[in-house]
Design a protein that fits this description.
Helix content is 23%, strand content 30%. It is of the alpha+beta class and 232 residues long. The relative contact order is 0.17.
Length: 232
């Protein structure tokens, strides 16, 4: 690298062969006739395929939010825990976390799935809604005890003085629920459903000429999904 570029800590990282060019995507293609009319069914098909092909934790997804009125965006990795005919459900703390503050001021969010092994991604955009405590309890009961205790103990995203402070909070919650296998879901913790109005399916192709198909939900009493191919 020349001296005028010395300020660049990273510049044009390449593929697996350390070449300066980006890795080429060659594992598949996507055509309109490969897609079904319902994007939820299409996602379910792709998700099942990802699992069958050994994609590592295909439920891992970037959850992006933005605070208003500043417009500042934040993102984090979470797990998709449910998909139904209304939307995509994740679980988290909705009292103290950054995402909680964001959706309180701006009830819109985005999800981005990236499945490297298949060179595919899926993007979802839409409004959000909280699940009820009764609905959240169903998933909460499937978590290991330590994770259920942790949901009570952690004031997510708040500053900690030390690790010991967190561990003491965990011990306090353990004492509170000592001898009880059934632990109630905290009222500040639970499910959030993203109700999509946009879902995009993306298949990587050579020379960055990717295949992209964009589902949008039409307005009106008989709303339906429309599909367009987008430029890469």
């Amino acid at each position: 690298m020349s001296s005028k570029d010395s300020s660049k800590l990273i510049f044009a990282p390449g593929g697996t062969d350390a070449a300066p060019q980006a890795q080429q995507y060659t594992k598949g293609n996507l055509e309109l006739n490969d897609l079904v009319d319902d994007p939820f069914k299409q996602f379910h098909s792709w998700f099942d395929h990802a699992r069958s092909q050994g994609v590592h934790q295909p439920e891992t997804v970037t959850f992006s939010t933005a605070e208003l009125p500043s417009g500042k965006v934040s993102a984090r990795m979470v797990y998709l825990k449910e998909l139904d005919d209304r939307g995509f459900v994740i679980y988290s703390n909705w009292a103290t976390s950054r995402k909680a503050a964001d959706v309180a001021s701006n009830p819109h969010a985005a999800l981005t799935f990236w499945w490297h092994e298949l060179e595919r991604q899926v993007r979802v955009e839409g409004k959000v809604e909280r699940l009820t405590s009764e609905q959240s309890q169903i998933y909460y009961d499937t978590r290991i005890r330590g994770s259920r205790i942790g949901a009570w103990a952690s004031e997510q995203s708040k500053a900690l003085g030390s690790r010991e402070e967190l561990e003491q909070r965990v011990r306090d919650v353990e004492t509170r629920f000592n001898g009880r296998e059934k632990i109630p879901v905290p009222d500040f913790w639970g499910g959030l459903r993203v109700l999509p109005d946009v879902i995009e399916f993306w298949q990587g192709r050579e020379s960055r000429l990717h295949d992209r198909f964009y589902y949008t939900k039409s307005e009106g009493p008989e709303s339906r999904w429309e599909i367009q191919r987008l430029s890469p």
